[in-house]
Design a protein that fits this description.
By secondary structure, the protein is of the alpha/beta class. Helix content is about 40%, strand content about 15%. It contains 14 helices and 12 strands. The two termini are about 35 Å apart. The chain binds 1,3-dihydroxyacetonephosphate and iron/sulfur cluster. 1,3-dihydroxyacetonephosphate (13P) binds near residues 88, 140, 156, 197 and 223.
């Protein structure tokens, strides 16, 4: 945290006490945001934490679907998303019933090229095609998609969730890479949506080859949102907090990190004797970086932006989240 940020930090801490607020931050948040948070974690840890908190206000330093999940799980608490525009492009790639073109248009992030889903496609249409198959919704989805699904999953538990279902055929939305990873570890048939995370999609096998050449003693960790070709070349595939656990437990001293660069903050802080290299320097999620200390301060001072889900959707979405959280 820079010296100019210290007075702001004090103001946030005071407001936090007055409002009985807790700050939750995802592992991809800016360093100074992670530093001020009460809990930092991956999507699964943050959902579990949100469900168990004793507070009046939750400030979610993350993206929209994360704050929405917290609000679904804790309807009696005020859930604030400091930056209203912090969304997840992958979560926006799927709609339940009103099919529409979804165009990726993130300035400065042209790779991969714009992807347009056919307008006749919707989750409802996919469900009609496979009426007996349960729907597994990655938590990176809207409350509406969760409400139309049977169970949620995160990158930390997708295989476990697929295996927990009695059905031989399952639908997995919206991440094609996470689905491919699940398919690789199950004998069930996984029907996938065609979405992807534009940050992880960038990593290619040649990046991994380059890293292996540059750092021959390093172990390569990759997030399951990466392409399957990349995952198959990695030494360990896991969620962001899974990477933290792996790096801590490993006797290796060097690691290549195949995920969003925000994770480097905790990896380095928690493992001072080890060295971490990004798989690519441009694996940066612009939405995760929107939240700043300023916006957290404004969120607490002005009670903004309150995230609430219509009750009818919330109750159904909570069922899918609860079912995931009940599977240990
Ligand atoms: P995890 O921290 O759950 O691995 O999630 C990664 C992600 O992309 C969140 O948006
Ligand atoms: Fe969405 Fe990818 Fe950003 Fe996570 S890193 S919020 S999946 S775009």
């Amino acid at each position: 945290m820079s010296p100019e940020q210290i007075p702001l930090r004090e103001k946030i801490l005071q407001l936090k006490r007055e409002r009985r607020a807790i700050i939750l931050a995802h592992n991809y948040q800016r360093d100074e945001v992670q530093e001020i948070a009460d809990f930092t974690g991956d999507s699964l840890e943050l959902s579990r934490t949100a469900a168990s908190l004793d507070c009046d206000v939750i400030v979610f330093a993350g993206v929209h679907f994360m704050a929405e999940s917290a609000s679904i799980l804790c309807p009696d608490k005020t859930v604030l998303l400091p930056e209203a525009e912090a969304g997840c492009p992958m979560a926006d790639m799927i709609r339940v019933g009103s099919p529409r073109e979804v165009i990726m248009a993130y300035p400065g992030f042209p790779d991969p090229p714009p992807l347009v889903f056919p307008t006749h496609f919707s989750l409802e249409a996919l469900k009609r095609q496979y009426p007996a198959a349960p729907v597994i919704a990655y938590v990176n989805t809207s409350a509406e998609v969760k409400a139309a699904s049977d169970v949620c999953c995160t990158s930390a538990n997708v295989v476990q969730i697929v295996e927990s279902l009695p059905d031989a055929v399952v639908i997995s939305v919206p991440d094609r890479n996470l689905s491919a990873w699940a398919q690789r570890h199950t004998t069930k048939k996984v029907i996938s949506w065609d979405g992807y995370c534009h940050v992880h999609q960038r990593a290619e096998p040649r990046d991994l080859e380059r890293a292996r050449h540059a750092y021959p003693h390093a172990l390569v960790m990759a997030h399951p949102e990466c392409r399957l070709e990349v995952l198959e070349m990695a030494d360990h595939v896991t969620s962001t907090s899974g990477m933290l656990r792996f790096a801590k437990a490993s006797s290796a001293k060097e690691f290549v990190v195949g995920t969003e660069l925000g994770l480097l903050y905790r990896l380095r802080r928690e493992n001072p004797g080890k060295t971490f290299y990004p798989l690519r320097e441009d694996m940066v999620c612009p939405d995760m970086k929107k939240t700043t200390l300023e916006s957290i301060f404004r969120a607490l001072r002005d009670t903004r932006h309150v995230i609430r889900v219509p009750e009818e959707i919330r109750v159904r979405a909570k069922k899918a989240l609860d079912r995931m959280l009940s599977i240990r």
